[in-house]
Amino acid sequence: MAWNRKHLLGLEELSKEEILEILDTAASFKEVSTRSVKKVPALRGKVVVNLFFEASTRTTNSFALAAKRLSADTMNFSSSSSSVSKGETLIDTALNIQAMGVDAFVIRHPAPGAPHLLARHVHVSVINAGDGCHEHPTQGLLDMFTIREVFGKLEGLTVSIIGDIRHSRVARSNAWGLKKLGARVILAGPPTLVPPAIGAALGVEVSHNIDQVVAESDVLNCLRIQFERKAANYFPSTREYAAIYGLNAERMKNCKKDAIIMHPGPINRGIELTPELADGDRSVILDQVANGLAVRMAVLYLCMGAGAHAQASETTAD
Ligand code: CP
C-alpha cells in the first residue's frame, strides 16, 4: 500500500492496511538488530528531536536508538531543563527547535491532543509518544507486533487489558488497533477504573471478573496503576487491588495453555502482577521492549519519507 502520512498521532485514525504496513516494515527492521553493524542509512542527514514533557525510560530511549539505527542525528529535549521552565509555550519551543533545521518531533506530553496541536504548527513530522490519557500509538503497535509474533496472527484472539483503564493511553491505542485487526478486546479491572462508558466509546467489551477473563484470554496485558494520576483514590488499598484484580500463580492455574502475559512498563511489582509471573515463562514483557525498537524504526522510516511510497507524498494525513 502507499503510505502517505507524515505524522503518527494515534491508532484511531489508521486503517487496518496502514497498521499492517507498519507491522510488516517493523518485521524487516527487526533483522537489523541481529547484525554485527546494527545500522542502515535510511535517514542519514535527518534530525529527530525527542520532545519529552513527561518522564519516560522505554519510549524515549527506544526512539533515540531507533533514530540512530536509521543513521539519523538525534536531539533530546527535557522540559525541566529548558526555557519551558521560564514560561515558553509548546509551540514557541517547537518553532525555535524547528528553525535549527530538524526533520521530526517525537513528543510526549501530559495534555491530550498536544501532538495534534503541534502538527498543525510545524512543517516536519510529529510522532505521538503518549499524550495524557489519550493515545500511545507506538506502544499499541509494539504490543500488536509482539502478539502477532507469538501467535502468528491477531484475528480471532482474545486480548484482555487489565488494570487502570481510566487513565490509560496504552489501553486506548491497543483497543483501536486490535479491534481493526480482528481481535476480541476485553477491558478489565475494578468498575471505578473501567467504567462501562469507556468500553462503549471504544466498541469493546468490559469485565470486572478477572478469573473469568483469565480463563478466556490468549493475551493478558496488565496495565500499571497510575499513582501519579491519583488512581489509588479509585480502590480501597493496593493490597485489596492485588488480591482481587492482580495476576498471580494461583489465578493463572485457570488460564489457556498458551496464554501470554504482557505489561507496557513500568511495573508495580506485586500489584498488577507478581514478580514470578513478570519474570516467568509466559511473560513477553522484555520482548515487547525489544520489538518497540523495530516498530519505532518503522514509524520514523515511514513518516519521515524514507520509504519509496512516502517519498511520493509529503502531504499531511492526520
Ligand atoms: N511503556 C512506556 O511508555 O514506558 P515509558 O513511560 O518508560 O516510556
Poorly predicted sequence stretches spanning 5 or more consecutive residues: 308-318
Q: Which small compounds were modeled alongside the protein?
A: phosphoric acid mono(formamide)ester
Strand content: 5-15%
The overall average pLDDT, rounded, is: 94
List the total number of helices.
13
Terminal CA distance = 17 Å
DSSP summary, beta strand count: 9
Radius of gyration: 19 Å
- What about the largest sheet? 5 strands, parallel
Order of helices and strands: HEHEHEHEHEHEHEHEHHEHHH
Name the strands of the widest sheet in spatial order.
Answer: 7-6-5-8-9
**Helical percent range?**
25-40%
What spatial form do the alpha-carbon principal axes imply?
globular
Provide the structure class.
alpha/beta
Description:
With 318 residues, the chain is α/β, with parallel strands linked by helices. It contains 13 helices and nine strands. The chain has helices spanning 16-30, 58-69, 90-98, 114-121, 137-151, 169-180, 196-202, 210-216, 238-245, 249-252, 275-278, 285-303, 308-311; strands spanning 47-52, 73-78, 104-109, 125-131, 158-162, 184-188, 205-207, 219-222, 260-262. Strands 7-6-5-8-9 form a five-stranded parallel β-sheet, sandwiched between helices. A four-stranded parallel β-sheet has the order 2-1-3-4, sandwiched between helices. Helix 1 (16-30) packs across helix 5 and helix 1 packs across helix 12. It starts with 15 loop residues before the first helix and ends in a 7-residue tail after the last helix.
